[in-house]
## 1
Amino acid sequence: DAEITQSPRHKITETGRQVTLACHQTWNHNNMFWYRQDLGHGLRLIHYSYGVQDTNKGEVSDGYSVSRSNTEDLPLTLESAASSQTSVYFCASSTEVSQETQYFGPGTRLLVL
Amino acid sequence: GQNIDQPTEMTATEGAIVQINCTYQTSGFNGLFWYQQHAGEAPTFLSYNVLDGLEEKGRFSSFLSRSKGYSYLLLKELQMKDSASYLCAVPGGGFKTIFGAGTRLFVKA
């Protein structure tokens, strides 16, 4: 069955370290998104991609980067982790034909100490 | 820009009906989404309204009034498993989606 996975599911890191969160989907979707979810803020868009080699900044992109070298993967990198980046991170994908449905990965809980 | 408002929390009794409201302001409009998110899990798609009116899907129904910038999600015959957060969302341009902060629903016995 097609699915979207994230790894790791939980991560503890230290301030200043570089961290990469993986997102892999087998839906063959062109559109992929990274969100962070914090209490009181809901889901906020970090970066998104509409296809290979395409990346765009969302509303809270500072301190994060993404790359899209193939259809299946959109890794999210925290260049120098900060305590403010402690959050739950969700990856999602959608098709351009049925963009009304976003399929979410299980999430990654990141703690920055 | 987009602005979405929904209540932070609601409590209802098992077997009852509950209505979760959402008001929005958006520069353009291509529909309104509802997602369900159980604690510790990913959001899952519930409904998508493009036209005014009520759309029913089993125990869940979603209503939209574009002229009023208003939607609600109606849950009937509440079950304990319906305890979750319900996220209202609107298209954010391109293929992006803008999510509200969500309404946490507690269903009590």
## 2
Amino acid sequence: SQKIEQNSEALNIQEGKTATLTCNYTNYSPAYLQWYRQDPGRGPVFLLLIRENEKEKRKERLKVTFDTTLKQSLFHITASQPADSATYLCALNSNSGYALNFGKGTSLLVTP
Amino acid sequence: DTAVSQTPKYLVTQMGNDKSIKCEQNLGHDTMYWYKQDSKKFLKIMFSYNNKELIINETVPNRFSPKSPDKAHLNLHINSLELGDSAVYFCASSQAGSGTGELFFGEGSRLTVL
């Protein structure tokens, strides 16, 4: 069956450090992988999309890598800030292409 | 203006009742979705509509009936509510198939079935 796995344990880091979140998947052949941020009581908000032929994508302090051989994406937040505290969701298009399936998310807490 | 808006934000009801959640998007997108987020925060696709046509129904009980009167609206009607239906329901939209473009989510509708 198709699976998207993210670190189930919350990630606690100190302000200014780099946070690295992992997304592993099985039984997908994704053309794209997306990352979203979700704050408590809010809907997910899109952050980045990376295509299968792109190894790395950057946006301000965010960096995403996509390794289709390892079936893994890494999501980095550099110079993290307390405002980065949220749950981060990895998402892949289903093999039919019509739906976006999400991992369970990793909760990030950045402390001052 | 809110891009994807859903109402109501909170809904508390008794088992066996019927309820509806409404969703509207003003982004001009062709595709709309309903997702369910359970108590473990797992976000799961329920339905997807493209230009008012149902394209995905992910083994959702037929007590759940989506209706899309036009491509800017996708409503969700739930019959005979059960305790297990308690969750947050998110509406979303995208311009193309969801793999190729970002999803825009509403703020969610928290349904509590007593």
## 3
Amino acid sequence: EVQLVESGGGLVQPGGSLRLSCTASGFTIATDWMHWVRQAPGKGLEWVANIKPDGSQKYYVDSVKGRFTISRDNTKNSLYLQMSSLRVEDTAIYFCAKAIAAYTSAWGQGTLVTVSS
Amino acid sequence: QSVLTQPPSVSAAPGQKVTISCSGSSSNIGNNHVSWFQQLPGTAPKLLIFDNNKRPSGIPDRLSGSKSGTSATLGITGLQTGDEADYYCGSWDGSLSVYVFGTGTKVTVL
């Protein structure tokens, strides 16, 4: 069964850091672009970042540039999102997804990040 | 702020048809493929349509996608109560180098 499982979410104070992980099972992520997408409470989807299969290219939405870093370890079949200088507006459910707009697309169930004092 | 515009809501009776529009620009829809996603309450998004009009395995042919210029449309025929969900379009934006989602449309079955 193709499965993506996110972890690492939680409550953090403004200015703090958090590292999200996404572990795949039932398939290898090594051949796919991987993405992080977030959804603030009651709001729509917002794409956050993506990374090429070999990790050589990364793209970010402007609001997280310089604060978030996407990375991957294909040997561990895992995707990561290092988040720093967190803001209240970063509060959201964070989903990882593979091949977001392709035949083999798959999404995780998400992990909640709450930034609050 | 999303660069793809969708109507906030659409509705129809069971068995009827709904269409959802997605309006963008030449930097996204005009020069890149469009995808459509369904998000049932409390669940992760699910890909319904990719490459403008292709369906992944398991997606019924009641759902269809089309693109013309800088706009795209999702059609759902034979509407069922299980189709009640939020629907989002999406496309790569070559000018911004980001993937953009639409504002989202809530489908209600009357």
